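Morning!

This is the sequence you dropped in the shared folder:
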Amino acid sequence: MRICEVGPRDGLQNQDRHFSIDERVDLIDRLIATRPAAVEAVSFVNDRRVPRMAGAEEILGRIARSDGVDIAALVMNGRGVQRALNCDLDEIRFAVSATDEFNLRNVNAPVSATVEDFAANAAAIIGAGVRLTAIIAVSFGCPFSGVVEPAAVIELVGQLAEAGAQEILLADTIGCGVPNQVRELLDGVAAVAPGIPRGVHLHNTRNTGYANAVAAIESGATTLDSSVGGLGGCPFAPNATGNIATEDLCYLLRNSGYATGVQLPELLGVVDWLRSLVPDEISGQLGQAGLFPEVARSH
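The structure's back. Tokens below.
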């Protein structure tokens, strides 16, 4: 199972505490050492609108890379792509919203314009040897438009697949989805984009994130996004709380027989370090409860 650690990006972008560039580099280096398949390290967005993400180029120039751990960045338009292609990246994750209202608030453009932007930049990204992942925000529900019809999401998947997406992730940006919706949408992705890997980006706002992760795996997802400590939130989505916690997810997967490559003891060390910086923001449970059966053996 491919775990993409999004803590340095999604986890920090909406934090009250400002993490310095030195601290962000330190966090990324610590997470790389835990051996996830990928780390979403930065986003190339407007620094004025998302000041917590300023300094992406400097951060990518300073982190300690490791074979086997891909470094990914989030972009939302062609300007972000051009910045990203000037850096050393393994993966570019291009976000497109499932609703016009959310897309307008996010990038000041309708969905159709962002799809055109995606298509216009796909060849350059792939030609540079960088993996192109399409992330569909608010796939399960929008804070402004309400219920999102599955047919609209599947139509968008088809457009992005035709435009060159090498992977497609469905994002539950506001944490409103439930397992049967996850299964339905992922089955729809497989139908319109056969052969393209699929995955999910889950928030745990309504405590359904882990059940949704299991449903996603059972429906053929090969990538799961998660955030160390359960940090996260979206500056453009009111009440969107943290992502599913990487440590809790990887414990669930490990004890269910799935290999992730993530070194859980080392990851819990990162959680402890983060707790010293943002003690009230850690929602993951494993850091408090400990691994089992390891805990049982220690007593």
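Headline: Residues 111-127 form the longest helix (17 residues).

More detail when I'm at my desk.
O.
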